[in-house]
Amino acid sequence: MKFLFKLSLIAVLFFVQQVSAQLESVSPIVTGSGNPVLFLPGFASNASVWDATVTQFSKTNQCHIIDYAGFGKVEPIDFPWLPTILEDLKAYVHSIDNDQLVIVGHSMGGTIATWLASQSDLKIKEIIIVDGLPCTGALMFPNFSPESMTYDNPYNQNMLSMEDAAFEQMAMGMAQGMVTSSQHQLEIKQSILNCDRKTYVYGFTDYLKLDVRPLLNKITVPVTILGAGKLYGVEGATQTYKNQYKNLSSYNLIVNKDAMHFIMLDAPIWFQKQLQLILV
Predict the structure, then answer these.
(1) 259 lies in which domain range?
(2) What's this model's pTM, rounded to 2 decimal places?
(3) Could you report the per-residue pLDDT of 155-190, keeping only the tens digit for each?
(4) Residue 148 C-alpha from the chain's centroid
(5) Residue 5's pLDDT band (boundaries 50, 70, 90)?
(6) Which of 39, 117, 251, 259 could form a disulfide with 50, with the two C-beta atoms 3.0–4.6 Å apart?
(7) Contact 130, 260 (CB under 8 A)
């Protein structure tokens, strides 16, 4: 029986590797054995953001960790960027072909996890959203309209032409608002600086345009949302989640009052405990 299990596992991994080789916008890393877990980083992040988490859960699960094109480890691709990533990840989930698959997505990765869960032809057991929203654009712009968001706009032009020193200062300011420790702030800043500038600028436009809210009523798998409450308070964060996920029939929302956006870095023990309740 063990031999047959190992043989089937090898066959699945071989098929996954074959599909991976055909994907241009994402690059998966696979480690560990057991029920599969797909880890999706956020915007301007790479697979290393999951290092501590994967070290723990690769002991009990087969971990699939994703890198996105243009974010320092995978060559940039043509635009539109995010729609290509969505389709490539859909193909990758098809290749895993396991109804025990759990998807863990941080920030933009959580948005992608939500989109994948809305696709009725995919085998997914559950998704875990880590401080992610179905439509970040609607949070930032009161009169949000995806059609009005284009690559060619003054903000993007300024970002593309910004001097390296000014861009680095901007990246540091962003990092300081997303994680508590100075060491992690430096790591996040460097992750932003490692991005292809055009991918960073136009890719963010793609991200802001993505609105998964109309698809929420198609999701039938369990959804857990792990929220960050340090910046805006537990009540403020909770209200934002409720507003954005109101079309989702059922979900479990847990907010950590002491964590900023990168919950897995700010509260690793708490974060891993929440995952353990679902994965193990």
Answers:
(1) 2-279
(2) 0.93
(3) 999 999 999 999 999 999 999 999 999 999 999 999
(4) 25
(5) very low
(6) 39
(7) no
